[in-house]
TrEMBL record:
PANTHER family, per the entry: SLL0310 PROTEIN
Gene3D superfamilies to which the protein is assigned, alphabetical: 3.40.630.90
Sequence ranges assigned to domain YitH/HolE acetyltransferase (GNAT) in this UniProt record: 20-109
Protein name: Uncharacterized protein LOC109474275
Highest taxon in the source lineage: Eukaryota
Species for this entry: Branchiostoma belcheri
InterPro entries: Acyl/Acetyltrans_Enzymes, YitH/HolE_GNAT
Length: 125
């Protein structure tokens, strides 16, 4: 598995160059995805990717895709509610192989879909 984090650093006190604040702007993972016991090429599964902006989401996605060996396929489950993530997937040449519906009994509990570029798993969200 490969995990990446994107960070931002800002100067807190202009008079002290060592006074900086670092925050996580996003993170993402890629892992082996075994489709069957006969699978020898082991496709990759990207997810989660959580990012505070489309630029960070795009950079994390590109960095994770760059770890996939040539000729090996990869998958990502993109939430339809995040149009930036859907556009990134389309622009990257990905195509839909199946769709699922995310359903809630009491609303979505305030999920910030604009920050979700790839879900962790379909089982966990």
């Amino acid at each position: 598995m490969v995990a990446l984090a994107a960070v931002t650093t800002t100067l807190v006190d202009e008079d002290d160059e060592h006074s900086q604040e670092t925050r996580i702007a996003g993170y993402g993972c890629i892992r082996l995805s075994v489709e069957s016991y006969k699978d020898v090429s082991f496709p990759r599964k990207i997810g989660p990717i959580f990012a505070k902006s489309a630029a960070v989401g795009s950079q994390l996605f590109a960095a994770l895709v760059a770890t996939v060996p040539p000729g090996v396929s990869f998958y990502i489950d993109v939430p339809e509610a995040n149009q930036s993530a859907m556009e990134l997937a389309r622009e990257s040449g990905l195509e839909s192989v199946f769709q699922t519906a995310r359903m809630f009994t009491k609303g979505d509990e305030g999920v910030k879909w604009s920050m979700v570029y790839g879900v962790t798993t379909l089982e966990l969200g």
